[in-house]
Amino acid sequence: MTTSRPGAGDPASSLAVRVAALPAVWLRDNCPCAECRDPRSGQKLFQITDLPSGLAVGGVVESVAVAEPGKEAEVVAEVGWEPDGHRSVYAAGWLHAHRPAVPPAAGDRRTEAGKELWRAKDLAGRLPEADWADYLGDPVERARVLEAVQRLGFALLREVPRREGQVLDVARSFGFVRETNYGQLFDVRVVPDPNNLAFTSARITPHTDNPYRDPVPTLQLLHCLQNSAEGGDSGLVDGFAAASLLRSSDPEAFELLTRTPVPFVFCDDRTELRADRPLIDVDPLGRIREVRFNNRSIGTLRLPAPDLEAFYAAYRRFAELLLRPGLQLDLRLAPGDCLVFDNTRLLHARTAFGSSGARHLQGAYADLDGLASTLAVLRRSDSLDALAELFHGPGTAEYLGEEVTVAGHMLQAGALAEAAGAPPHLVAAALLHDVGHFHGPVTGTELMEGTDNRHSHTGADLLARWFGPDVTEPVRLHVAAKRYLCAVEPGYRAALSPASEYTLQVQGGPMDEAEAAAFAALPHAADAVAVRRLDEQAKDPLIPAPDFAHFMPLLTSLMRG
After folding, report:
1. What whole-number distance in Å separates Cα of residue 79 and Cα of residue 273?
2. 504: exposed, middle or buried (C-beta count within 10 Å: 0-12, 13-18, 19+)?
3. Could you give phi then psi for residue 224, rounded to 5 degrees?
C-alpha cells in the first residue's frame, strides 16, 4: 500500500518534477507493473508498437510505500498516462539509479568507461589477490576478486590446490569453461612437436590469446603447478591503457588501427581458424572495448600499398607503446597461483626459461558474461553493513594528527557536501573518501610515520564492491587532487593543516606541470577536487554531523547491480 506524503501531489514536488521531465516513452517502456512485465521472469509482455502514439504523462503523485516487515519504506512516484489511462509506480531509488546519463554510463562495463586503466606502478602495494579458501568460503571475498577482474582486468588466486584439472574448478566457480580446439584445458609446457610457441621455452612478448577465433575467449586462466625453471616469469600489460596512450599521442594512428581489419590466422593439421578484426576495437561511442594483438598470428594483409604503409607505421607505434618501460607488471607465478585475466584487454607475456627445472601451467578459457552474472548475483545480497561497521569500529580512532576522529571527519565531509547541494554521488564520495585508512594493508599510523598507505586506492577498491566509478573514482583521486591543488593554487597549500602538509610530502609533494595537466584531463578530476576541498574543511571538532545511518538511504540508492 502507499500513503500520501504532505504536499506530495503538488506539482512542485521535486520527485514529481523530475519524473515529469523524463522522456515519456522511455518511462512507460520501463513500467514495472504486472500488466507490462511477467512477475516471475521480469520480461516485458508488450511490444514497443503496442504503446499508444502521443504518449504523455497525465499526472504524478509522490507517495511512501509501506514496506514488507523488516524492510525500509521507500518513496515512490505514481504516474498516470494519457491517452490510455494506464498507471505505473516507480521507486525513487530505481529512478535515480537508472536516470538518463550524460555522458552515457558504462553499459555492459566492457569498455574503458567501466575500467580502471593502469601502469605497473599504479598497482604497487595493492595487487588484486586472495587466498583460494577465502575466495570459496566468503561471498564478499569472491565478489571482491571478481570485481577486480572486471575493473582492473585480472586477479591472482593463491594456494589453489596443485592438482591436474583444478583450473577447471576455478573457472566453474564463476562461470563456464569455453572448450576450444585445445580442449577444455591445455598444458603450457615444453612439448616435442609444438603447434604453438606457447608450448616451447621461448620468450613471448605481450599478446592476447586466440585472436583468430570468433568470438574470442574473453577470459583466460593460468594455474601454476610447477615453476622451478630459471626464467619463465610472467608479465601483464593493460592494453586499454596502451591504446589510450596511443589515442592521446597519435590520434591518427589510433583511428587507423580501429578501422583496419587484420587477418588473424591459426592452422595445424586438424584446425583452420581465421578472424578479421582491428587491433583496437571501439564501441559506437568511440570507447575502447577490445584489444587484439598477437604478432605470431597476424596473416598477410591485402590492402593498397599506401594503406599498407600507413597501417604498418601505426602498428609499429602501438607495438612500441606495449613494450614501453613501466607499463608491464612483472610477476612470477608460484606453484598454487592461478591467474584470471581479461583476454580482450590485458596482454600477457613471459620470459624465456632454461631446460633445467620444470615449468608447468594448466590453462583454460571462460567468458566475462559468466563472471559478470555471478558477480551481480553475489551483489544482490550484499549490504552496506560492512561500511557501517567501519564507521562504528576503526573509524572511531584518532584522525592522523587532527582534532577529530576518522569517522567524524568523513561524516563532516558528507554533511558539508549535502548542505552545499552536491549531487548524491559526490555526497557519497565525500562521506567515504578516507575508508582506506582503516581498510588497506598499510595503516594511517604508518602514513604518519613516513610510509604512503595509498589509502585513496585501497578505499576506492573497497567501495567498488558497492558503487560505480562516479563514487569510487573521486575517492581514488582525492589524494592526487591535493597534490594538484598545491601545484596550481598556492593559497590552497598555505591553508593546509600541519598534519596535511606532512602527509603531502609523504604522498609525493605538489605535482609538476605535466602531472597537473594529466590530472586535470582525467574524467573524474573535477569531482576529486571538490572532495578534496570538502576534506580540508571537515576537521572542526565543533561542527556537528549526522551519524552514518543518516546517509544510508542515499548510499542505498547509489548501489549498483
Report:
1. 54
2. middle
3. -85, 120
Nearest Cα neighbor of 85 from 63, 58, 45 is 58
Segment 488-508 shows an average pLDDT of: 85
Q: How many helices (H) and strands (E) does the chain have?
A: 21, 18
Q: What is the pLDDT of residue 404?
A: 77
What's the CA gap between 240 and 200, in Å, rounded? 28
Cβ–Cβ < 8 Å for 488, 516: yes
d(CA 129, CA 223): 14
- Altogether, the residues listed in the chain come to a count of 561
Q: What is the mean pLDDT of the chain?
A: 88
Of 141, 146, 286, 318, nearest to 219 by C-alpha is 146
Query: Grid coordinates representing 338?
Result: 592461478
> H or E element: which one contains 239?
helix 239-249
DSSP secondary-structure letter at 5? Answer: P
| Beta strands 329-331; 338-342: pairing state | unpaired
Q: What percent of the chain has pLDDT over 90?
A: 59
Q: Compute the distance between CA of residue 161 and CA of residue 152 in angstroms, rounded to an integer.
A: 25
Q: How many Å apart are CA 76 and CA 93, to the nearest integer?
A: 8
Beta-strand ranges (E) seen in 83-230 are 87-91, 129-131, 154-158, 185-188, 204-207, 219-227
For residue 193, pLDDT beyond 80 = no
Give the tens place of pLDDT for each residue, 379-413: 876 778 778 887 877 656 665 566 778 888 899 99
- Does residue 393 contact residue 197 with C-beta atoms inside 8 Å? no
Residue 108's contacts (CB-CB under 8 Å, 6 or more residues apart) are: 114, 372
Give the other-Cβ count within 10 Å of 295's Cβ: 11
Using alpha carbons, select from 547, 438, 400, 422 the residue that is nearest to residue 474: 422
Question: What is the grid cell recorded at 112?
Answer: 574503458
For 537, how many CA atoms within 13 A lie in the half-sphere containing its CB? 20
User: CA-CA distance, 91 to 97, in Å (whole number)?
Assistant: 10
Residue 169 has pLDDT above 70, yes or no: yes
Residue with cell 547509489: 558
Whether residue 215 is preceded by a cis peptide bond, meaning omega within 30 degrees of 0, is yes
Please list the alpha-helical segments (H only) found in 357-468: 368-380, 385-392, 406-419, 424-432, 444-448, 455-463
pLDDT tens readout for residues 509-558: 999 999 999 999 888 999 999 999 999 888 888 878 888 888 888 888 88
The answer to whether residues 533 and 484 touch, using CB atoms and an 8 Å cutoff, is no
Mean pLDDT, range 323-343, rounded to an integer: 96
> What number is the average pLDDT over the span 19-25?
92
CA dihedral 524, 111, 324, 220 (to 10 degrees): 130
Question: DSSP string spanning 275-339?
Answer: EEE-SEEE-TTS-EEEE---TTTB------HHHHHHHHHHHHHHHHHHT-TTTPEEE-PPTT-EE
